[in-house]
Amino acid sequence: MEVKRRTARTLVNKLSSVSERTRTEALSELRLISKHDAESRQLIAEAGAVPYLSETLYSSSPAEQENSAATLLNISITSRGSLMSTRGLLDALSHALSNSTSQSAVQSCAATLHSLLIAEESYRPIIGSKRDILYSLLSIITAANVPPRSIKDALKALFGIALYPLNRASLVGLGAVPALVSLIVRDARTGIVEDASAVLAQIAGCEESEEAMRKAGGIRVLGDLLDEGTGSSGRIRENAVAALLNLARCGSEKGRNEVREMGAQVKEGIAEVAKNGSAKGKSKAIELLKFVVDENEMRDLRFNNFNDLMNNSI
Q1: Do 123 and 160 contact (CB within 8 A), yes or no?
Q2: DSSP state of 274
Q3: DSSP readout, 181-250?
Q4: Which residue has the higher pLDDT, 2 or 44?
Q5: Residue 102: which region, alpha, beta or left (left: phi > 0; alpha: psi -120 to 50)?
Q6: What is the pTM of this model?
C-alpha cells in the first residue's frame, strides 16, 4: 500500500510541472492506475489530484481533457467526497460538457455527474442548482450528430438530477420536456428511448410539467409508447405508465382528463404492464388503470386477483 501511495504522490506532483509532456504522461498513467486498481483511487484523491484534474478540464488539449475526465470518473466510484469538496469542480465539468471537442471527455464528465447523483442524495440539489450543467446536458441530447454514448450518459445524469423533486421545475424551465419528447420520437434505438422516457417520467412529477407536456404533444407520445403496435420494450412501457401516472397525480383537472382520455385508448397496453411488468411497474399500472377505467372495465381486462387490484388507488 505504501508503494502505491508514493506512486500516487509522485504522479500528482508531476501534474504541476511546467513540462507539458510530463503532465501528459502523468495524466495518462493516473488514468490507467485509477481504472485498474480500486485501492489507488482513494490514494490519488488523498494526494491532491482532484483540483489539478478539475483545472485540466479547461485545457485546450483534447488528450489532456480526456485523461482528466476519465480519471475523475474513476475516482468518483470510491471517493465522491473528494470531488464534491473541490472548489470549482462542477463548473469545470460544465465547461467540458459544453466546450470540449472530445466526445470521450464529454461522456466521462456526464458519467461522473451520474456517479455522484446516484450514490448520494445530498448532492442532487447542489448539482441541480447549477443551471449551466442542466443546460449543457440538455444541449447534448438535442444536438445533431452526437454519438449515442454521449446521449445515454447525458440522459443518465439528467435522470439523477430529476430524482430530486425541486430540480424538475428547473428542467422544465430549460426546455427538457420538448427535448425529451423530440428525442423519443426521432430516435429508434431502444436503449436511448428507455433512458429518455425514464427521465420524462421523473420530470412529469411536478405541476410545471403539465403545460410543457401539452405543448410538446407528450401525452400522445406516451400513448404511442403503450400502443401494442409500436413494439416498445417492457421498460419503455413502464416508463410511459409512470409518466402518465405522475401527470395525473400532479396535474390540474384538465390535465387529469387528458391523461384519462389517452389512458382509455391504450388501456390494453397499461393492462399488459399490470400483468407482466416488474413489481414497481405492476403497482403503477394498476393505479393508473383504476384512474382510467371503471370497475366493470377492470373486470373485462381479466385480472386474476381482481379484489387485490382494486385496493390500489391514485
Answers
A1: no
A2: H
A3: HHHHHH---HHHHHHHHHHHHHHTSSTTHHHHHHHHTHHHHHHHHHSGGG---HHHHHHHHHHHHHHHHH
A4: 44
A5: beta
A6: 0.93
